[in-house]
Structure formats: C-alpha cells, structure tokens
Design brief:
elongated; Rossmann fold; 467 residues
Length: 467
C-alpha cells in the first residue's frame, strides 16, 4: 500500500518528545514490510540545519487559501538513511523559527494559522501523490481529515492523537482561516465549547482513530483520562481502535545474567534472601497503582500469604500517599522496599530479581514497565480491565492456556488471592508462564500489521461506497 504520513515531528530531524520517535519508527517498519511510505513535515529551521540530510527543492509548487490571503508553498524532498521519502513544506514566516511550537515556555500566538496552513498543504500533496491512506499524528495535522472530507477526495484518513493532553484549542476567530463553510463551526464539527479544537475535529472527521492500546480505548472515554474529550470519544466510539505502538529493543532491555548474578540482585534488594531459596519477588510500578491501587497494595502487605513473598515498589508516588508508604516501609522492613528513582542500574537489578509484576489497579497508563518485565520473563498478576486481553491472557491450569494471572474483583481480598495463587504455582508452571510472557510479541511488526489491516478494511469500504 501507499501510505502518506503527516506529522509535525520526525526523529532525528525535528523532535520535542516521543511523537518524533514513534512516527520515525513506525514509518521505518512499515517500509521494511514492503509498503510505500512518504512523510509530510514542516520545513523548520532545525531541519535546514541538519547536515546529515540532503534537501532538494522539488518542482511541486502550489498556493492554498488562509482566510483572506493566499499563501504559496514549495515542497522540498529528502530520503532519510532508512529509505523513507520525506516531503517538507516550505513557508519561512510559518516554520523558519528557533522553536517548533514556541519559545521560552510560551506557544507562538499564530500556531493555529501555522498548522491550518500545514494541514491544507498536506491535502494538496495527497491530491498529487494519490495515497491509499493518510495517517496523521498529533493535533497539528488533525484538520487534514476535515479538509479531505470537505473536498470529497475519497482518501482514507486515520488519526493517531498521541496524547489527549495536547489538543490544539484556539479561539473561534481562527476558524476563518480554514475557509470552511460556516456550518463547520458547530458542536458536530470543529467547535468545542466556543473554541476551535483541532484534535476534536480530527476525531469527528477521521475514518478511524488509533489509540495506543485497547486499554486506552476504554479509559479515554472516562472523565479521569479523557482530558475533556471523553464525550466526543464516546460519541465516536465505533471508530476507536487500540493498537499499542511497537517498542525499540534497545529501550526495553532483556537481561541475560547468570544465576549467580540473579542471586546477587535478589540479595541486594533484600538481605534476608539467600541464594537458592524459594522466595518470590513481586514488582509493582507506581504508575500502575492509579486511584486507590496503592492503598490496596499497602493494606495487603499485612496479610501476605507467605513469609517468602517480597514486594518492590518502583517510581514516585503521589504526595497524599507518602505517609502511608513510609508506614509500610517501616512496618514491613525486610519484605517491602520502595525505589523512587529507577535508573538503568536499578532497572537491571529488579528485572533480574523479579518473579512477578503486579498491576493492582484497573488502568496502567503506558504499560511500559509491564512490557519490560514481560520481555524478561516476569509473570504478570493483573487486575482485569477492558483491553487487558491484548497483553495478558488468564492462565488456566486445566487447559494450560494463558500467560498470566488475572483477578476480577476489586479490593485487598482479590489481590491477596492472586498473590496466593502465584505463590503456589509449581516450578514447571512458573517456567512455562515465564517462557510464554518472554515470547510475547511487542515489536513494531505486530503494530504495522494491525495498522495495515485497518487501512485495507477502510479502503475496501470506501471503494464499495463509491461503487
């Protein structure tokens, strides 16, 4: 397939965070899978200054309306070392600046104009390139699906919001820059509580909205995680799809230590653990204790089913939980340890030492630590929630299917039940589950295959409608 990607960032040429890496990795893996990929980006000053990139001015020139003005555009081309074709939109007053979105902690006041212009240019490039699908990333190009629909181009559009915290919310007067009919500034289209919201507009008009995993699909439709867009997401829930991004192997290390090193890591965490004993270490990422999850965990420490169970809590906790955490550290000294700052050394040590990774709450935002743990054969103990099946399937001792233990009730009793179950698994069962979780596919290949299946399904549906 021919896929046009539109993004405001692409590593390593223009980046402020994870968006750039995700788009770059996705494009590279999609090209490796045999698909034709082209990426449309703004021609920032930082891109011009890249010595590793050979930019060439193309023959493609066009003008797009921006309110009462009509702005000319020149498209530049380059090919990155991974073989990805990059197309850059040149307009110096929009993009020849020191910062991508702002300076000194403040956004540029004309960001609405800059990225309305960029979105319109993406559509003009798509008109000339005729891709099978357009995939836009983040709020900056999120108006592309709107313009594609309004111009009746018949091209499939997919939106990956990346983060709901950044939405591109601008005052209503900027709507005039879109040159869309006045009817588009309504609650059913671009208007959002009196403002114009780029991300909301993309959700409404895209053919599919890809969130980073099935767990997000459910969570983002709630006030706790929807960042104000939960009602829009619920209204368009039929187009929400959960596909976890692939993970870079270098960023998610697999330990290969000898048994003596594993024993050393275990004894460094808990001096009472001796080499060769049957103690079990349960790892808990503080990010997975959302809501009252930490309270359930700390309450359960008083009733652990065995003296051979040890708990390691990793990462910072909320200010309101620090007193209870301090009490738990003192009461259970020798069996409970908190590591607030997890550097590479601490990460290697806990991944070597851990037997189980516990998710005591319904929602773990990024699943990054869970992924790292599972890649190292650490068995998950997870509270059931929507979308969990994409990562953890319940282990059945009769059929022997599954790769982790899942508990379905909230509270201390349910948490203790799953820990008790884990503590009394046989050595053979532990090894089987450990091997299964270590072989779970978290690669970009799985993400690419899922995305391509969406493009193909939507393309077929568009063709059927057109016929």
């Amino acid at each position: 397939m021919k896929i046009l990607m539109a993004s405001s960032e692409f590593a390593p040429y223009a980046e402020t965070g994870k968006l750039a890496d995700d788009v770059s990795d996705l494009c590279a893996k999609m090209a490796e899978a045999g698909h034709e990929v082209l990426v449309v980006l703004p021609l920032y000053r930082c891109v011009r200054e890249q010595k590793s990139l050979t930019l060439k001015r193309s023959k493609v020139r066009f003008a797009v309306p921006l309110g009462s003005s009509r702005l000319n555009c020149v498209v530049w081309e380059a090919v990155d070392p991974k073989g990805i074709r990059l197309l850059f939109i040149e307009r110096d007053e929009c993009f020849d600046r020191t910062g991508l979105y702002g300076m000194d902690g403040r956004d540029y006041e004309d960001n609405a104009a800059r990225f309305i212009f960029f979105s319109k240019c993406v559509v003009e490039v798509a008109r000339r390139e005729s891709p099978d699908a357009i995939h836009v990333h983040g709020w900056q190009p999120a108006l592309v699906p709107v313009f594609v629909r309004e111009q009746n181009l018949g091209i499939v559009t997919v939106l990956s919001p990346q983060s709901l915290q950044y939405q591109g919310n601008f005052w209503s007067h900027d709507f005039a820059l879109t040159n869309l009919p006045a009817s588009y500034f309504s609650a059913a289209a671009l208007e959002f509580y009196g403002s114009m919201n780029f991300l909301k507009s993309g959700i409404v008009f895209a053919d599919a909205v890809v969130l980073p995993g099935s767990r997000y699909v459910s969570a983002m439709q709630t006030p706790e995680h929807g960042c104000g867009l939960e009602s829009v997401l619920r209204e368009h829930s039929n187009k929400l799809i959960g596909i976890a991004p692939g993970f870079d192997e270098a960023a998610f290390p697999v330990t290969s230590s000898a048994a003596k090193d594993i024993a050393k890591s275990r004894s460094e965490l808990f001096s009472s653990i001796k080499a060769g004993d049957a103690s079990r270490i349960v790892l808990v990422d503080a990010a997975s204790t959302a809501g009252h999850g930490l309270g359930v965990l700390l309450a359960g420490m008083d009733r652990l089913p065995s003296d051979d169970i040890f708990v390691v809590l990793l990462g910072e906790v909320r200010e309101e939980d620090r007193v209870a955490l301090l009490v738990a550290e003192r009461r259970h000294a020798g069996r409970f340890v908190h590591i607030p700052k997890v550097g590479s050394g601490e990460l290697t040590r806990v991944l070597e030492a851990g037997d189980f990774v516990l998710l005591p709450a319904e929602f773990e935002p990024s699943c990054e630590f869970l992924t790292k743990a599972m890649r190292n054969g650490i068995i998950p103990l997870a509270r059931h929630c929507d979308g969990l099946h994409q990562i953890v399937q319940p282990y059945d001792r009769v059929t022997t299917h599954g790769n982790g233990l899942v508990f379905y009730r909230d509270g201390v009793d349910a948490l203790l039940d799953v820990i008790r179950h884990a503590a009394f698994l046989s050595g053979a069962e532990l090894q089987t589950l450990s091997d299964r979780v270590a072989s779970t596919d978290f690669s970009w290949s799985a993400s690419v295959a899922s995305l391509v299946a969406i493009y193909q399904r939507l393309t077929t549906s568009h063709q059927r409608i057109a016929a």
